[in-house]
Amino acid sequence: MLTKKILTIIVTFNGENWINSCIKSLNNSKIKTDIIVIDNKSTDNTVSIVQKFNNVKFIDNPLNLGFGQGNNIGLKRALNEKYDYAFLLNQDAKLDEETLNVLVKRSLVNPEFGIISAIHYNYEGKKLEENFANFIGRNSSQALLNDLFQQKLKNIYEIDFVNAACWLISKECIKRVGGFDPLFFHYVEDDDYCHRVKSHGFKIGIVTDAKVYHAVDNNKKQHKNNWAKIFSNKHRSYSYHVLNIKKSNGMFVKMVADEIITLISSFFHDLIARNIIGCLFRLYLAAKILYTTPKIYSSRKQSQRVGTSFL
Fold first, then answer.
1. pTM value?
2. Which of 208-212, 231-235, 252-256, 281-285 has the lowest average pLDDT?
3. How far is CA 297 from CA 193, 238, 294, 301, 302, in A?
4. CB neighbours of 77 closer than 8 A, spacing ≥ 6?
5. How far apart are CA 178 and CA 119, in angstroms?
6. C-alpha to C-alpha distance for 133 and 117, rounded to whole angstroms
7. More confident residue, 132 or 167
8. Alpha carbon distance 26, 100 (integer Å)
9. Is the pLDDT of residue 93 over 60?
10. d(CA 178, CA 189)
11. Fewer CB under 10 Å: which end of the chain, C or N?
12. SS3 for 95?
């Protein structure tokens, strides 16, 4: 029986449809885990559902901190209370009883992996979760696809990125990499973290004999008009531009200039097409990047340091 100390961290926001099943799956796990739920100002019944579980530690944030900063509360506690692992699990995900046990076993014999995750299925378990299928289709995981085709899977495969719906993070990784960058409120924060994990010398892995079931396919929202779509996408688009600047090893000024030039080019393309909404969107993004350039620079420098950055 494994005796590693694990803290499962769940950040919630209006997750009443899933949180009960999420916590129950953890309580049924073959390996014991402490559980902390950090709620980001839910307006549904999430809080009352969580509080029915006597074994769950609960933090009720006075405001919505976003996914990354919410998880940082748990990651900091994991370090302070000397946990061996932090296990990040989305509110809309659930596990098999063996999942966490298998992940820990694979981590113990592969300590070079700072983050490992399970195979992500849709919530019903009938197919691969859509985004996960896209991740493993990237060039970094061709070995996994080849072995899958030949039916000779290994226990673990290295990959460049997997989303944070199900992450087992070693304490060594947290001590070296730190927490999520608060510059990203609710998009690409896991992409940024994966990049930092690799730049600090750790690997990211997929464990093929562990399963997680994720309801992300059911969370897609339909936008009634272009304005609503633009408003929804503005944070995502800004975050991707910032991520490009942070991930590059080139000169900071040049990377900012490259992103601005890309936006200006898109602006003129939209102008020729008489896409006024698109024009305004590009101008907004360019202005926001220029305005937040000092923060981006500071974030980039802090991310490169060894230690508990952002915690």
1. 0.93
2. 231-235
3. 16, 15, 5, 6, 9
4. 7, 36
5. 25
6. 14
7. 167
8. 9
9. yes
10. 13
11. N
12. strand
